[in-house]
Amino acid sequence: MHFNPYGGPAAQVAVDLANLDEQTAERQFATVRAHGMSVTEPTPRQARALAKWSARLHAVFAEPDNDVRVDMVNALLAESACRPYITRHDGKPAHIHYSGAHDDTLRRICAYTAGGLAHLLCEDGDRMGVCASDGCTTAFVDTSRNGRRRYCSTRCATRVHVAHHRERVGAQP
To answer: In the beta sheet, which residues pair with residue 140?
Structure first.
């Protein structure tokens, strides 16, 4: 049984926000809603702030040193978190929120994603990263069995492996 939903689903929201290349309010909040969060329409200020937050999330995934990641996530937690509480809403079973009952949408998203990254980092910080393919900056959460993922997708991995193969074959006399 998975007791804490923040390490899994919240980390997925964090990685999806971190990977938004086009930071429009519609895409940001559609991403959050796709993960089941009940959020109201953002103000323009909230949308701009969420774009900045998303960039900070991406920086956590891009940082290779878990000790530095801890400091980065602690800064996110300090900025976003408040006292946890149990709630029921929208027909969902009881669950924990890390933001206040009357906090705005932006604060709720920030607390949720910071909490998700904190749990992921504490469970296995090596299961987050950015694609190793040259030119690709896509962040990912490694859910593979062996935890050795280096690429954001099979497509990127295949592209790299084919290029390496062609180099080897081309280099043979």
So the answer is: 129
> Which architecture, in CATH terms, is 6-130?
Orthogonal Bundle (1.10)
pTM of the model: 0.83
Please name which of 156, 94, 97, 167 lies closest in space to residue 130, comparing C-alpha atoms: 156
pLDDT at 172: 62
d(CA 121, CA 55): 18
Distance CA 117, CA 50 (A): 16
Which of 50, 40, 158 shows the shortest CA–CA distance to 102?
A: 40
Give the residue, 124 or 83, on which the prediction is more confident. Answer: 124
**Model confidence pLDDT, tens digit, residues 95-122:** 777 787 788 889 989 999 998 999 899 9
What length is written for the chain? 173
Domain limits, the chain: 6-130
The Cα 96–Cα 78 span in angstroms is: 18
> With b meaning 16 or more CB within 10 Å and e meaning fewer, what string describes 18-37?
bbbeeeebeebbebbeeeeb
